[in-house]
Amino acid sequence: MDFWREPGSAHLVTRFVRGGNLDRLLEKAPLAASTVADLGVQISTALAAAHAEGLWHGELRPDDVLLDDTGSV
Fold first, then answer.
1. Half-sphere exposure of 62 toward its Cβ, with a 13 Å CA cutoff?
2. The model's pTM
């Protein structure tokens, strides 16, 4: 992972993940309630870890949530 700041912005570079994003997953079919709950826990945990480090995500959309090849956030 890498990051840098410029006047008025900050950038974060992470590893490439092969599972696509939540937006594409939602386009395929409705998700089971258990899957929604599991993804919600994973997303919340990731955001809490970022916030604990003083980082924040300005706008969280389904296409911002990246999935690995097992479907995990």
1. 7
2. 0.75
